[in-house]
Amino acid sequence: MRLHLVRHGETDINAAGRLQGSTNSLLTPRGHRQAQELAVASLAWNPAAVYSSPLKRARGVAEPIASLTGLAVNEEPRITEMAMGALEGVTVQQMRDDWPELYQGWRRDASSVTMPDGESLGDVQERAMAAFADMDRCHGADDTVIAVTHNFTIRCIVAAIIDLPLANINYMDLALGSRTTVSTGRRGRRLSEYNAVNHLTPANRTGY
After folding, report:
1. Does pTM top 0.85 for this prediction?
2. Which ranges in 8-150 belong to alpha helices (H)?
3. Nearest in space to 3 (alpha carbons), one of 175, 176, 157, 167
4. Which of 12, 36, 142, 176 has its Cβ near the most Cβ atoms within 10 Å?
5. Does the pLDDT of residue 208 top 70, yes or no?
6. Can you list the domains of the chain with their CATH numbers?
């Protein structure tokens, strides 16, 4: 299976520089343009299936892809974004000011932190990799699959595949509307491409 992990487009919350986690934020006009460009690009990928996080910002990208490719959207809750709990909607500066120990722990070793009333990166990685394994079982070796998902979810999947410690996940940038490609086969799980944005016009390549 060849799996394209697509990050959703720009939203009202990340455009404002706030943490969104499991908040049901909405795509901005630029986010919708990114979704349309992803949908057009997906025709060349010839997907056999489209999966999506249940959050509206992911569905807003998956549905145009499904419409153009003639596929249904399979909702997969295990690829939703990391639940940020009490930090949802706050800025990084507010996190630094109001949760200084949490902020320092996150910068020092992101894997050591569980968000207040939320998840840890380990929680995200465990559920996301279970979803990955189920997709792999459901699809053939030559199938291409698209999964529209989120920043930390994608980074956690990639970290598992390349055996990168979650402590180092903050060194990975991931653009809005980007495509990351992983595959399974005789050589096991492989990372083929990371953070690709060549399907987006320059005006729509924005944001981490």
Report:
1. yes
2. 12-15, 29-45, 56-69, 92-98, 100-108, 121-138
3. 157
4. 176
5. no
6. 2-200 (3.40.50.1240)
Q: Which of 10, 76, 81, 88 is catalytic?
A: 81
| Catalytic residue from among 8, 76, 88, 199 | 8
Q: Which two tokens stand for residue 51?
A: 């999966």
Does the active-site annotation cover 8?
A: yes
Helix then strand then coil, in percent of the chain rounded to 5, is: 50, 20, 35
pLDDT of residue 206: 80
For residue 151, what is the enclosing H or E element?
helix 151-162
Residue 204, phi then psi, degrees to nearest 5: -105, 10
For a pLDDT cut of 90, what percent of the chain falls above it?
A: 96
Place of tokens 């999966």: 51
